[in-house]
Every structure is written in structure tokens, then in C-alpha cells.
Amino acid sequence: MANADCIVLMGGNMAEAHPVGFQWVAEAKLRGARVIHVDPRFTRTSAVADRHIPIRVGSDVVLLGGLINYVLSNDLDFREYVVAYTNAATLINEGYRDTEDLGGLFSGFDPETGHYDPATWAYEHPEGGAVDPPGGAEHGSSASARAAGDEHGSGGPVLDASETVRDETLQHPRTVFQILKRHFARYTPEMVREMCGIGLDDFEYLARSITENSGRERTTCFGYATGWTQHTLGAQFIRTSAILQLLLGNVGRPGSGIMALRGHASIQGSTDIPTLFNLLPGYLPMPSVGRHDTLADYLAAVGSKKQKGYWAYADAYMVSLLKAWFGDAATAENDYCYDYLPRLDGPAGTYQTTVDMLDGKVAGYFVLGQNPAVGSANGRQQRLAMSKLKWLVVRDLNMIESATWWKEGPEIESGELRTEDIGTEVFFMPAATHVEKAGSFTQTQRMVQWRHQAVAPPGQAQSELDFFYELGKRIRERLADSTDERDRPLLDMTWDYPPDAHGNPDPEAVLSEINGYYVTGPDAGRNLTSYTQMKADGSTAGGCWIYTGVYAGAVNQAARRTPQGGPGLTQSDWGWVWPADRRILYNRASADPEGRPWSERKKYMWWDETAGRWAGPDVPDFPVDRAPSARPDPKLGGAEALAGDDPFIMQSDGKAWLFAPSGLVDGPLPAHYEAQESPVANALYPQQQAPARVMFAREDNLDAPSAGQPGADVYPYVFTTYRLTEHHTAGGMSRWSPYLAELQPEMFCEVSRELAAARGLENEGWATIVSPRAAIEARVLVTDRLKTLRINGRDVHQVGLPYHWGQGTDAVVSGDAVNDLIGVTLDPNTQIQESKVGSCDVIAGRRPQGAALLDLVRAYQERSGATIETDNIRITDPGREGIEPDPAKDDPGGEGFTRW
């Protein structure tokens, strides 16, 4: 980011929520970079940006699509980069139909299941037909259930061939380039103005800023956070930005890319070595019933030997993982204990588990490093679900609301729950803070850094490693004499970490296991240095293939802390970056197809003809001796099939994907749909909401009627949630601190002067915010930082709500939880909740107490006519989801001839 010439921050408030990383934005600005903040609110980030551009929350795809259209309409793409390094020239098969043809849907939508069959999105095969994943395209009904779109954090989707049909003139109507032009043609500056509330001058400023700061000599960087991810089409928000950046040549080069702002709490690490139901370490998919019943089935499905690039070796990564977990018990004869792994038979995310708890299907629950009573969507549903458990374990630093809801939660006050009637046995286990334990964390840059323990944890507080290691030991001791087959995985697990000086398991021993080691041969016991050393024959073991090298030479590379990262450009003496300590992914793209730097100013990696290898300050993200002119037979598969101009080495065709022929479950291209509930009608398509979204149609999860439905005026305003510098997520680390509590003592809402006047709200007074799920109260902050926007000819007011407070007496400060307002609807790719946009009403004064609060929420529901069907209809207007114009009536000789 420090090397960027322009930085666009959207979907986040980086200065406030990621202040340590923001130093690099500040450094870029000092070097002359232009910084633009696009956000519903004027924030501390906006205050130090060159320009703040207000936007209606949830409309980002319209703006980004408008920028793509601007680039394509004005021939401002970095054409040489686009043709050589992306799939712009690749042909899509004849069966594909776009949203432009089907009134807002892509081909393959199945209204019965509410999901897409993506078979028609595939590449055209050189021998006819389509280039498919192994076993054929997976229907969205199963792919969505296992959040398959979330698997591609380290490698692209699997395809069964590396050969494609390309037209490098980009003229064929079925090239990705021409499909892009048609798809985004309706995303005009005027549409951006009408749907985003962004004026033509601001749009022009943004468009000129990114295009003038892209190309051979200059680069633009994007940064985003949960303001992009937490939507029913959050993955497509990010895809739109990726398309834009690729068209401008802003991937794989200094000062380019798209930074997912993920910070010190190791959110990046929690997907790399996952706490997610659908992933194994290194973004290997969790096996699924019927799809991955045997190891052979699994390996055939997750990595094809016919495709290009390093994902073809997924078998080596998987077998090494099984060897790390099950050691000597894992042999070729028993498929390396593959059958010990659980199988997904449906979605098992946070919100599906909550529903199962409510239905009495879950006996016990661990709450670790989170506070669902405050921090999860539909907080009331979360707390009621916990009341149905037999037991609940909460590990935290303080007595958070998820540990005390049973005696002082909102439902106790309202009378919905009575403490004496709750059968849940709650165990509170004190946890160590980040300075009281050693271990790694991984952040935005994929950088693994090491924390050394500063002080011992107080009392019985334990680190996660100590707690789970001890729990595992006790379970294994109790099962030691078991002959039950289901206990073998626990008994055969490797669980022999040596103790540190305090008698606890040594965290560096865990890091060494994650890194990987040779199991057999002359190097047995030695740590691996690269994931390319992993084998599928059981001779290597490794807990996460993308982290191989972090403990190379039995040295903790994550603990490197040379001031300024050392003398080199890449600061590579600070921490360790996966994979292989590469500081910029896909850095082969920093040179042109002939291997020469695009410009001296942006010189990074280049082909050294004399040495016969790639050179530069970084670790080459490419076969180091593969010459730019190399054109191996693509049928070789794997890294051997990569041509010298295939920089995207984890993609099945070696190219970056402007169009996704596989991997996503809700469309091969981004398309704008409104949020699950929205007072704004979708002006782009007849389809109002994302058709493949994951819905929970329940009485305890009602939605506000959307634009065009009766009752939409009952919840006329849009609310969005955000975080503050002074508080940390759900407040477990900050609301117990007197210093931080004094800085932000009360829950508040930000409203514009126009909304304050319309609703009689007074600055520092009280307001009640009502959604179909709950009503909360907040102090009023009347501000110019939140603008009333003109959308489709009418004013739309937005309400800003920080989400750090919860009800209880243990913290220094308490308040109503904003997440009680939020409904549960999910992105089908990732199963993340839409918590950044919802519909509400705002009333002056404090909310009712006790049962009267329930009466207020119920009265609003009845006035709006909300039922479980509201907003939960897949197809908005079935009569318009047909092909327009009718191909049977097309006249090839006529002026209106189309590609039909």
C-alpha cells in the first residue's frame, strides 16, 4: 500500500478499525498518493483522505460496475496486461445466458431449489463442449450448503483441463471481454447517481483517479473490510473490485491489489488454519457426504492433475495434513485415516447451528473468542438458542454477556425467559489475553507474526493451546481402554507436544508441526522449507501447506523483527508471509509477457536472461527458471504446464479470472441486487434481491417489507453498523476498561440533521430504533457526517449504529446491542450474514421496558404485515425472467441483430 499512487478505501473505516495498517496509507499519501474514502459516513478515515464520497450502504456493486463500464467504454484498460494475464480472451460456451438476457438472472437458475446449476457458465472446450470441474459442475444446492465459494483462499476452482479456446483480438462475442462489456453496459454514471446517491462530479473524480493512476507507470490499491463482506452478495462485492483491478493491471505489482483488512485478532489466520465448518487447513475443502466418500473421490474432486498450476498437487497437501494429524496410524493401506474425518451432510455454520439449538438438536456449545449474545446477528435468537442447551462453555477474559444472559439478559427483563426455568448449565473458563500467551497471528498481508509471552496469565486463566491440549489429554485418558470404533480418531491423533519452561505445551512445537517435516528417508524429522517438497505418498507431514517455510531450518521465521524489516525493499526480515515468504502474490505479473518490468518506476520482478531465472527483491511467485518464452504442453498438468506468461499459478488455466466459469454459486459475474430488506427498488433488474441468498424464514427472524411491497413505509430508513477506535468488537476487551469506557460511555446512533428534524430527535437525547426483530435505545448524535441521499428521486435517510454494547452489570458500561436489530440472511458463497444493512424506524425517546418492549416490536410487525414469506420469495417477477429479445425472432440482417 505504501507504494500505491492511489488508494481507494471502501467497505471499511481503516484509520479507525485498522489503525496500525493505516500507517502505510499515511506513508503513501506523504509520497504523493491520492486517498479516496467511499463510505456512508464521514469518519476519521475520511478526515485524512483527499476526498470522501458518500454512498448508500449496500450499493457498492453499482459503483464498482460503473467504474468497470467507464474503463471499458473509454478503452482505458491496460490491454497488454488484460490479454496476456487474464481470461478476457477466453470463450465461454454457447449455453451461457447473462442477466442482460434473463431479466436479472444468469442461466441455470433452478427456482425449485433456489440455486444455480453452473454448467452453462463453463469455458468452451477446444474439442467441443465445456471445460468442467472433475465429475462435472456441482449444483449450487450442494455447493452453497457447504459454502464452497469460500474454499478459494489459496487456489482457484478446479477444472479438468488446462486448455481453453481464446481469441486474443477480443472480438468474438463469446469472449469474456465482450461478455463483460455487455454485462456492465447498464452500470452508467447516471445509474450510479440514482442508486448510490453519488453525484456525477464525484463519480468522474473517482473514475479519473483510478484510471490515471494505473497502467505501466502507476498503480492503484483497494482496501476493504466487513462493509463489503457482510452482505447477501458480499463475495460479489469483492469480485467486482477484482475485475476492475485486473482490467487496470493492478494485481501482482507494487502498490496494487485488493487488501482484505484483517487485523491482530488473526481473522486471516482463522481462515488459513480454520475455525470454519467448511474448510480444512490451507483452504482444503471439508469432505462432504456423497461427494467425497473415499480419499480417491476427495482427491479427484479437489485437484485435477489435468489443470495448470500448483493446486494440481492438492493430493500432497491433503495426505501431508492427515500424516500430521494421525502420525503412524495414517498409512496408505487405510487411506491415511481419511475416514476419521467428519463429513458434511448440510450447512453447519453459526446460524444453522443456532436454529438447531432452538429446535433442541444441540446439547452443548463452546463460545470461544466471540460473544454471540452481543456480536452475532439477531441477538435475541442467539440468546434464546443458548437457553435450549444442556451445557454451555464460555472462555473469555471477562464475564461477557454470553455468560450472563441467563440472569440479566434482555429476555429476562422482558419476561420471555425466567432464570429458574433455564436448564442450561454454564461453565465460565477464564482465558489468557494476547500478552499472556505466546503464539502466532496472521493479518491482512498474509503475514504470520509471533507474540512472545510478556506476563503469566492470572489465576486459572489459560491460553487456547493450554486449554485444548489439556482437554484433549483428559478425553484421551478417559477413552484409553475404549474399543468403540468411533473413539479411534481421538486415540490415534498425534498429541505429544513437548512442554515449555512452564510445563505447558510448547507453542513453537505446534508451529513446527504446522510447517511440516519429513516423515521418512534420510531427512526424517527435519522441517520442510517449501510446500513443493510435500508428497502424496506419506513421506511428508504438515499441518497447513500454505504455512510451509514458517519454521524452515527449525527457526521461527514468524518471530523475525528486524527494525524496518531490514534494508530490503520488501522488508522481508519482519515476520513471514505465506506462501513461501512472498510479499506480493502473483508477482510474475509485475513484468510484461517478455519478462521485462512494465516500467522502471514500478520495477519489481524480471527475467534475468544471463542467469536464466527470475530476479528481484521478492521470492518469485512463479517457477524460478521458467523463461517467458516457454510454451510447454498444457496437457502436462501442474506447474510443468505453466507457460512463461501464466502468472496466476494457482488458477487452473494460469490466468486471472474476470469471469468465473466455476467456483461461485451465485453467478459468474457480479450483479447488483438489493439487500434482503430495502426501501429502495432495484433499478438495474426486475430481480429485487440476490436470488441464491440463504434465507431463514422463521417467526423469530421476520424481515421488513421491501420497496414495492405493502408495509415498506413502516420501516422507512436504512441502518448500518460499524466499530469505533475506543471499543473492540463486542466489547469484551474494552467495556471492562475504565479508560476506554470513559471515552465512549454509551450506545449512540448517528443521524442526519434532516432525519433529526423529521423525527424530532435532539442531539444527546434518546432515540428508539425499531426493526422487525427488536427495538433498542441509543443516545442521539445529530451530525453532518451522515448525509441524506437522493435515490431514485426520493430522499433516503441512513442511521449509523456502533455495535460494541450489551446488557449486563459486570462491564463498566452497558447498553442495548445493535445486533439485536439485524436479521439472518446469508451470502451463499461464504455463509456470512448480512449485518451491514437493514431497514428500521426511528422514534424520539427511550424504548419501553419489560413486556411493553415486545408489544412495540409486535405492533410494528402487524402494521407492516410482515410474515415469514416477506422478502423470502426467490424470483421477484417470474414473468420477466425470460430471454429478451426472443432469439426465434432475431434477424441477422437487421439493425438490432444480437449475438443470438
UniProtKB/TrEMBL annotation:
<feature type="domain" description="Molybdopterin oxidoreductase">
    <location>
        <begin position="2"/>
        <end position="399"/>
    </location>
</feature>
<feature type="compositionally biased region" description="Basic and acidic residues">
    <location>
        <begin position="876"/>
        <end position="892"/>
    </location>
</feature>
<keyword id="KW-0479">Metal-binding</keyword>
<dbReference type="InterPro" id="IPR048158">
    <property type="entry name" value="Formate_DH_Act"/>
</dbReference>
<feature type="region of interest" description="Disordered">
    <location>
        <begin position="124"/>
        <end position="160"/>
    </location>
</feature>
<keyword id="KW-0411">Iron-sulfur</keyword>
<dbReference type="Pfam" id="PF00384">
    <property type="entry name" value="Molybdopterin"/>
</dbReference>
<keyword id="KW-0004">4Fe-4S</keyword>
<keyword id="KW-0408">Iron</keyword>
<dbReference type="InterPro" id="IPR009010">
    <property type="entry name" value="Asp_de-COase-like_dom_sf"/>
</dbReference>
<comment type="similarity">
    <text>Belongs to the prokaryotic molybdopterin-containing oxidoreductase family.</text>
</comment>
<feature type="region of interest" description="Disordered">
    <location>
        <begin position="876"/>
        <end position="900"/>
    </location>
</feature>
<protein>
    <submittedName>
        <fullName>Molybdopterin-dependent oxidoreductase</fullName>
    </submittedName>
</protein>
<dbReference type="InterPro" id="IPR006656">
    <property type="entry name" value="Mopterin_OxRdtase"/>
</dbReference>
<dbReference type="InterPro" id="IPR006657">
    <property type="entry name" value="MoPterin_dinucl-bd_dom"/>
</dbReference>
<feature type="domain" description="Molybdopterin dinucleotide-binding">
    <location>
        <begin position="718"/>
        <end position="836"/>
    </location>
</feature>
<keyword id="KW-0560">Oxidoreductase</keyword>
<dbReference type="Pfam" id="PF01568">
    <property type="entry name" value="Molydop_binding"/>
</dbReference>
